[in-house]
Amino acid sequence: MVSRNPRRFAPLIRIVTVAVMYMAVTHGAWAEEKPSKGASDLAKASQNPVASMISVPFENNATFNNGRNDDFVNVLNVKPVFPMGLTKDWNLINRAIIPLVYQGGAFVGDTRVGGSVVPGGTTEYVIAGQELGSQFGIGDIVYQGFISPSKPGKVIWGVGPQLNMPTGMGRMSTNHWSMGPAAVALVMPGHWVLGAMVSNVWSMGSGYGSPADVNDFTLQYFINYNFKGGWYVSMAPVISSNWEATSGNKWTVPVGGAIGRVFKVGEQAVNLRVGTYYNAVAPNNASDWNFQFELTFLFPKK
User: Fold this and answer.
1) Domains in the chain, please, with CATH?
2) How far apart are alpha carbons 163 and 137 in whole angstroms?
């Protein structure tokens, strides 16, 4: 593991500035409708991973300094959430992550998106020692199914399976079906939403093209503080470990935060969030910075 020095990120500041200005401009419209309490409650619900509410987030992650040539990588995660009632006491919260990935050039052995490593000579699209060109396409799709009480107490929780599917194109896939347990727990005292989501998946079978085994751990803690009118600040870094990686290349530990707001576009409730995270600990040749922009369409029960 290596510590990272901050790099230039001025171009992304423009995106963050525009998004924050838009949230500020829309504040007047919310003030006229006087929905401050409703907006704040909806903001808290949107921060609950097992809320009984349909939502469709589009989370864009722009990273720089990937690989030996400091390539640009962009990942747009489409993350629909669809809750279902199993019984009067239990819900099944269906969550998916569908990544659309652009990768700049890569070298064999470089650490790429999500801690995966481009294999050396194991598949037809890798030529040992050669630089690989840029690539755009879908990555491996992830499904999580959380069983959660329909009427939770002070501690809200959910447990269930996580399934990673080898849907990725070329080097953007692990070429493995992987599965393991996932769990989430949180509390929502006053203006706060505090909790964590954790999972670990292992590869099943030998995979396609003799790929490396998968043994991936993910922990996302989240700390949100909500203000009036749907405004909030948050910290929600995704800490991960590739247990199969060599010593010093297992962990990715980001630090940072975000600002966001729940508001309406016409009659449609949306959640807009912008933030940045710095990888204080990361594998060799991994990115330093992650600039995050998320737009979520919310469909609360009426």
Assistant:
1) 10-297 (2.40.160.40)
2) 20
